[in-house]
């Protein structure tokens, strides 16, 4: 049963207060970001790196995990959350590699709540209501339209996100580097060999009737790929 019904319940709880005091006793009254001494312990803020939500607040491996909590000063905390005019520069990542290399898994591990994710497969799901391996050709121009709008949003840094992740094959070196340049993005290559990709097709139950089609996508990527 959920002990804390709201985030406020949690922050008022004995568990959180004791946990926070024990962190302060252990780490001292210094901001872990800027190193400033924080005179009054009431001004030391316990910041959760994985942001607390009503869904995860009852999971002690997130809410009461020392590895997930930094002790910071008021200024650094506002900066962290981009509040009150503190604007952190936005970061953009272009995550590329062959089909089934694990690009989405990688982004899921690295992203934070509130990051902007741009991925053709997910946009297809949004407008077609079909599973993510089934992408009808007739919708391509609509999906790419939404995709390009989001790409433009990222180029102009439109919106309140802190990080954007653009996911795709991007086998062509020239196109990939030009896009990364236009986006001001860091390139992240998710590596997998052709054999590994084939093996994942074999192992993926959802693709059991589309093996030839997906091997075709893999072959096409490796034919176009330039390091
Ligand atoms: Zn600080
Ligand atoms: Zn925080």
Distance between the termini: 51 Å
Strand content: 5-15%
User: What overall geometry do the principal axes of the alpha carbons give?
Assistant: elongated
Q: Strand order across the biggest sheet? A: 4-5-3-6
> Cofactors and ligands present?
zinc ion
- Helix content class: 40-55%
Computed CA radius of gyration, to the nearest angstrom: 22 Å
**What is the overall number of helices?**
10
- How many β-strands, per DSSP? 6
What is the residue-averaged pLDDT? 94
Weakly predicted, low-confidence segments: none
Instruction: From the 3D structure, determine the CATH topology of the largest domain.
Output: Rossmann fold
Domain count, please report it: 2
Name given to the CATH architecture of the largest domain = 3-Layer(aba) Sandwich
